[in-house]
């Protein structure tokens, strides 16, 4: 296929709008895969994806399509739509030249808009599509109006389809061929159509026997089996050394690997070249023929984690295995960050950074399903910052900024000039009737309105500036329940702002319990302190003597409870509480119950801590 016969495109849309279904139809319609009666969503390969019905990892497939008697090669890159995964989206986008925006009858959603803006940023043309026209609830006129208001499109361009019934799929394919530019046009302008190989490495995975598999977009030249290649990253890493790899296999993704022995400019495919560590297959790297170095492509924006949790193996003997599993999984998800961490109770573990809560959930589920690991994950925190004053004794010469993600990071108060918290701009799109409740929710979460506007007679777009901390735990759930699931949400970072940050410590009969310390805003500290004390009173088994439970900030007590001494016949109080959601913990519950930890003279079962972590 010459470049002018190639189109690289992605389907972007809000979760559940039918991306994967449309992808399946496109593959079926063109005979790439066999038709099936049930919707099997071929590209949603991972088990988590099937269970949750969301796409986590961008997948690619090549389609051959005949239009006006000529054959075209269409490379489809399936993208995840959720806000937590936009890193994957932007990574995929840089390898495609066109994007289809599918919109369901629910109307334009916050993520649709965010992804649309992302495409605009990449300078990608968009084919607007309305999906699910077969549904009785479909309100096509309203959805069209929203699209005209929010996106830069014309009514005549909008294609109406039913991915489920396979209606008007041909129109979509035709639009891809006719409206999207071929990759070559792009190359010519920016890469001077020389014949030297220049390939973008946009994704990589690891397989046990074949080793590193890199997904590449060929921007210039050709890549053949047997070629000796190197990369800009490898050259920089190893200096001017011989760092080079032989291409052992090249092919296209249909969506399974089909070896073709050669890839031409404009094509998207995979290569296997015997790289042993995935660290060598840097995403965003530029590949070239070893003898003909080229200039590197602009670097990808690195994903920045916004939610942190501490992860521990339920069983310390599994620490090495967990480490290995994490490393393997992180090869396929480069947005996750990992640092070593230690806990008095849970032993050695890791501090893991995620792009969002859903991302964290999905990652843990994959750890369990794909690697059979059992982990304990503590509640998420966001990265706060502290500006420290210069201090001679501590040899801090000038003002210094530190990041605080766990209670141990919290600096001593007298050093601190200011604490800062991360802020976001949240966009909510909602039917009118829920807007009042949602505005109240945003205000309760310390949000300030930035701008509200109608996007049709019946739907509103609300924008609020909110502390990230307020949205990481339950904002999304609350929003969904307030709006019966109709409101959608997306956010972007908006810098840092001064905050009154405090560290709440818990004392049992005057002894500090390190693992229960918590960082929170001063405003919330009383509530959190009171909750923790009440909960502890409920969970700690009665001792032969009374136990005082206190929450303190520095030296001042902000909440207290007293657990009365045990009567003779009372053995232990069982901590009621339903936490069936953390089923995996139950399995180890009996074990942990046996392990007692002494805090002073007080004996408490170890699993109390796990319960405390999850139940607040
Ligand atoms: P994704 O999250 O964007 O990948 O969405 P999916 O492709 O997983 O589709 C979400 C749900 O919508 C599935 O239950 C599909 O069967 C359903 N769906 C997708 N397209 C259509 C359509 O055209 N009509 C109807 N009635 N349902 C559809
Ligand atoms: Mg999907």
TrEMBL record:
Q: Which residues bind GTP?
A: 13-20, 78-82, 131-134
| Any one Gene Ontology cellular component term annotated for this protein | mitochondrial matrix
Instruction: Indicate the enzyme's highest-level EC class.
Output: hydrolase
UniProt-listed GO biological process terms: positive regulation of translation; translation
Localisation: Mitochondrion inner membrane
Keyword line = GTP-binding, Hydrolase, Membrane, Mitochondrion, Mitochondrion inner membrane, Nucleotide-binding, Protein biosynthesis
Which SUPFAM superfamilies is this protein grouped with?
Answer: EF-G C-terminal domain-like, P-loop containing nucleoside triphosphate hydrolases, Translation proteins
**Catalysis: reaction(s):** GTP + H2O = GDP + phosphate + H(+)
The record places domain Tr-type G at: 4-184
Which InterPro entries does its entry note? EF-4, EFG_III/V, EFG_V-like, EFTu-like_2, G_TR_CS, LepA_C_sf, LepA_CTD, LepA_IV
> Mind listing the GO molecular function terms for this protein?
GTP binding; GTPase activity; mitochondrial ribosome binding
Query: What kind of membrane protein is this, topologically?
Result: Peripheral membrane protein
What Enzyme Commission number(s) apply to this enzyme? 3.6.5.n1
Biological role stated in the UniProt entry:
Promotes mitochondrial protein synthesis. May act as a fidelity factor of the translation reaction, by catalyzing a one-codon backward translocation of tRNAs on improperly translocated ribosomes. Binds to mitochondrial ribosomes in a GTP-dependent manner.
Q: What family is this protein classified in?
A: Belongs to the GTP-binding elongation factor family. LepA subfamily.
Give the matching NCBIfam families.
Answer: lepA, small_GTP
* The protein's name in its UniProt record: Translation factor GUF1 homolog, mitochondrial
């Amino acid at each position: 296929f010459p470049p002018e016969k190639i189109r690289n495109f992605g389907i972007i849309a809000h979760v559940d709008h039918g991306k994967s279904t449309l992808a399946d139809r496109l593959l079926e319609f063109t005979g790439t895969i066999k038709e099936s009666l049930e919707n099997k969503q071929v590209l949603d390969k991972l088990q988590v994806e099937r269970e949750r019905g969301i796409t986590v990892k961008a997948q690619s497939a090549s389609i051959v399509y005949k239009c006006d008697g000529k054959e075209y090669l269409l490379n489809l890159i399936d993208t995840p739509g959720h806000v937590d995964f936009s890193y994957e989206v932007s990574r995929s986008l840089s390898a495609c030249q066109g994007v289809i925006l599918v919109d369901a009858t629910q109307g334009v959603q916050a993520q649709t808009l965010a992804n649309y803006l992302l495409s605009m940023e990449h300078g990608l043309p968009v084919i607007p599509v309305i999906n699910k026209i077969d549904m009785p609830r479909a309100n096509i006129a309203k959805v069209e109006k929203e699209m005209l208001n929010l996106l830069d499109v014309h009514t005549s361009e909008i294609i109406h389809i039913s991915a489920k019934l396979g209606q008007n799929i041909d129109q979509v394919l035709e639009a891809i061929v006719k409206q999207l530019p071929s990759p070559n046009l792009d190359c010519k302008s920016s890469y001077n159509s020389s014949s030297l190989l220049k390939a973008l490495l946009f994704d990589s995975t690891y397989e046990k026997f074949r080793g590193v598999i890199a997904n590449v977009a060929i921007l210039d030249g050709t890549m053949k089996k047997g070629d000796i290649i190197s990369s800009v990253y490898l050259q920089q890493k190893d200096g001017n050394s011989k760092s080079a790899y032989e291409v052992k296999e090249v092919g296209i993704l249909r969506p399974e690997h089909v070896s073709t022995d050669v890839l031409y400019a404009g094509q998207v495919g995979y290569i296997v070249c015997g790289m042993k560590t995935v660290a060598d297959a840097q995403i965003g790297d530029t590949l070239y023929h070893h003898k003909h170095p080229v200039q590197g492509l602009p670097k990808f924006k690195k994903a920045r984690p916004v939610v942190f949790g501490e992860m521990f193996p339920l069983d310390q003997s599994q620490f090495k295995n967990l480490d290995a599993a994490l490393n393997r999984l992180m090869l396929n998800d480069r947005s996750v960050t990992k640092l070593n961490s230690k806990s008095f109770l849970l032993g050695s573990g890791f501090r893991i950074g995620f792009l969002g809560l859903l991302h964290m959930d999905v990652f843990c589920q994959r750890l369990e399903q794909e690697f059979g690991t059992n982990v304990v994950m503590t509640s998420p925190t966001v990265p706060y910052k502290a500006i420290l004053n210069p201090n001679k004794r501590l040899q801090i010469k000038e003002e210094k900024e530190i990041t605080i993600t766990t209670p141990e990071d919290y600096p001593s108060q007298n050093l601190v000039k200011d604490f800062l918290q991360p802020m976001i701009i949240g966009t909510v799109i909602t039917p009118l009737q829920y807007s009042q409740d949602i505005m109240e929710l945003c205000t309760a979460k310390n949000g300030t309105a930035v701008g509200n506007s109608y996007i049709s007679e019946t739907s509103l777009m609300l924008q609020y500036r909110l502390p990230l901390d307020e949205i990481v735990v339950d904002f999304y759930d609350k929003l969904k329940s307030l709006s019966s699931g109709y409101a959608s949400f997306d956010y972007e970072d908006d810098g840092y702002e001064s905050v009154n940050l405090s560290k709440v410590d818990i004392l049992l009969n005057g002894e500090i319990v390190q693992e229960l310390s918590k960082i929170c805003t001063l405003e919330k500290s009383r509530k959190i302190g009171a909750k923790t004390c009440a909960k502890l009173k409920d969970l700690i088994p009665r001792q032969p003597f009374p136990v005082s439970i206190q929450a303190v900030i520095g030296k001042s007590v902000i909440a207290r409870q007293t657990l009365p001494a045990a009567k003779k016949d009372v053995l232990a109080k069982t901590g009621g509480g339903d936490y069936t959601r953390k089923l995996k913990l139950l399995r180890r519950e009996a074990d942990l119950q046996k392990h007692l930890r002494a805090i002073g003279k007080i004996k408490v079962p170890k699993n109390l801590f796990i319960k405390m972590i999850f139940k607040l």
